[in-house]
Q: What sequence folds into this?
């Protein structure tokens, strides 16, 4: 039940985080609309929006490079929905229904292979149950024990490919997510710094890059090997119940949950505090700059300060768009392995119940151990995605408060 | 589908015949037991065949390796036949033969499972 709760919470958080940038973008659009109405009028709104890209270019911000590190799936989705950093209206058109429909479609795609695994496992469980049912009428249990081992070996053969495939896909998603963030963070931090949020941008740049680079390193060198070893131990325990290795697997799962929770708390806490404290300093700096410009530049000082406000709002629009792209990219990259693991976990839950019903302890141990490994992978993926999504959303929110 | 009334009938008639002919000669009792056991074994095979068909169709739909299914059914067959042989031998008072039949059954199962151990070692070494 834990995994269901975690998954539903993560799903709601992800949907909220995905929708939040839309709201922020809408707010940014409204801001620029207000400024434009006041300064240049409604008829020039479109041309001002087109100038966003030019402003970004003049500030040396290359928004086009954001799509370089995207996965092909993310590129396709962005292209289909016409989503781009300088097209906030397309972002604003995305509704929660679209997000949930996308999640549901992906989940349906993820279910096919795990369901095949479940069918095969149930077939093995059914045959094993035939022998297990005869246990009382067979005086010598050695034959049924050997048959039990054969059933476990066949079950291992059935699930091994799917489970190792899921672990590898999760590691690839972490790797591609981390690689994307390494390219994305300087661009987003640059836009935020250009629109006045220098302190927040520095904190975001430093912390998120650290997380992204650490994740890229850890996913290939520590996470996958460690989980694979645990999987191997789980198989050994299922074949020979004399080896009590499930304690190690369970301890690892608890350690992963604790470490990820701790890192996430520290990361989000530190970033929030630095961003909030930094936003006050940045607001002071921006107001001081506007005051200096409007009072010390003769004749055109006031006009320059107003132009600065227009440019800043344009940058706010760009920041909303780029922020949304970052969050959506991480969401799209991490979602397939998360759903894949969720589907596998559900299937193993069903197999666990079937094994329990027929009293097949060895298959139950195998399924349970494999489920623990998948839970650990799930925790890592969700923590990684939530950290990056929340960090980006914090910077977007903090940027709005700098005036 | 197995007819449990027929099975119960065969068992009771065989038991009564064993009692009747047991006093004439113990070998007759053994023959009757063998015949009844063979008939019951055939009935059990008929009983298992729909289960086997279901399992096979589930397996085919899942697209799993056919080799696993073959090993599974062969193992099941070995278990039943070995148990049948052991029981007949023990009933005849030949416990040494029963032990040999049991040993042969275990060895057959292990030999049958060798490819599985091979693939297991590949999986585990691949994981590590």
A:
């Amino acid at each position: 039940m834990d995994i269901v709760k975690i998954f539903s919470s993560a799903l709601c958080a992800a949907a909220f985080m995905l929708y939040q940038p839309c709201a922020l973008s809408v707010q940014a659009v409204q801001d620029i609309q207000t400024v434009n109405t006041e300064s240049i009028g409604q008829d020039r709104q479109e041309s001002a929006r087109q100038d966003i890209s030019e402003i970004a270019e003049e500030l040396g911000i290359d928004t086009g490079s954001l799509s370089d590190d995207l996965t092909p799936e993310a590129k396709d989705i962005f292209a289909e929905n016409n989503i781009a950093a300088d097209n906030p209206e397309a972002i604003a058109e995305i509704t929660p229904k679209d997000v949930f429909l996308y999640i549901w479609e992906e989940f349906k795609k993820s279910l096919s292979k795990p369901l095949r695994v479940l069918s095969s496992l149930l077939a093995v469980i059914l045959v094993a149950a035939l022998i297990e049912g005869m246990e009382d009428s067979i005086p010598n249990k050695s034959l049924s024990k050997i048959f039990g081992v054969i059933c476990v070996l066949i079950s291992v053969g059935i699930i091994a490919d799917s489970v190792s495939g899921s672990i590898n896909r999760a590691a690839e998603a972490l790797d591609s997510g981390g690689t994307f963030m390494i390219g994305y963070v300087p661009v987003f931090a640059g836009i935020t710094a250009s629109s006045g949020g220098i302190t927040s941008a520095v904190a975001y740049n430093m912390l998120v890059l650290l997380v992204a680079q650490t994740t890229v390193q850890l996913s290939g060198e520590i996470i996958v090997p460690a989980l694979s070893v645990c999987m191997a131990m789980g198989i050994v325990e299922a074949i020979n119940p004399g080896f009590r290795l499930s304690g190690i697997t369970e301890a690892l799962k608890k350690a992963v949950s604790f470490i990820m929770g701790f890192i996430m708390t520290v990361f989000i806490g530190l970033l929030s505090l630095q961003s909030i404290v930094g936003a006050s300093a940045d607001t002071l700096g921006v107001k001081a700059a506007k005051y200096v410009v409007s009072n010390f530049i003769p004749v055109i000082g006031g006009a320059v300060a107003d132009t600065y406000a227009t440019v800043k709002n344009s940058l706010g629009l760009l920041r909303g768009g780029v922020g949304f792209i970052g969050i959506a990219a991480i969401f799209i990259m991490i979602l397939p392995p998360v759903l894949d693991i969720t589907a596998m976990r559900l299937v193993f839950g069903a197999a666990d119940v079937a094994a329990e019903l027929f009293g097949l302890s060895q298959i139950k141990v195998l399924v349970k151990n494999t489920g623990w490994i998948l839970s650990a992978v799930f925790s890592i993926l969700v923590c990684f995605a939530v950290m990056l999504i929340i960090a980006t959303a914090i910077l977007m929110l903090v940027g709005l408060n700098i005036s | 589908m197995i007819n449990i009334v027929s099975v119960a009938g065969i068992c009771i008639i065989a038991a009564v015949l064993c009692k009747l002919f047991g006093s004439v000669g113990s070998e007759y009792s053994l023959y009757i037991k063998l015949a009844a056991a063979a008939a019951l074994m055939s009935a059990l095979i008929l009983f298992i065949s729909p289960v086997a068909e279901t399992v096979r169709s589930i397996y085919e739909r899942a697209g799993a390796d056919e080799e696993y299914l073959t090993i599974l059914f062969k193992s099941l067959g070995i278990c039943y036949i070995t148990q049948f042989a052991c029981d007949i031998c023990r009933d005849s008072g030949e416990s040494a033969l029963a032990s040999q039949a049991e040993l042969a059954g275990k060895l057959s199962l292990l030999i049958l499972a060798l490819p599985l151990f091979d693939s297991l070692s590949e999986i585990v070494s691949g994981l590590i």
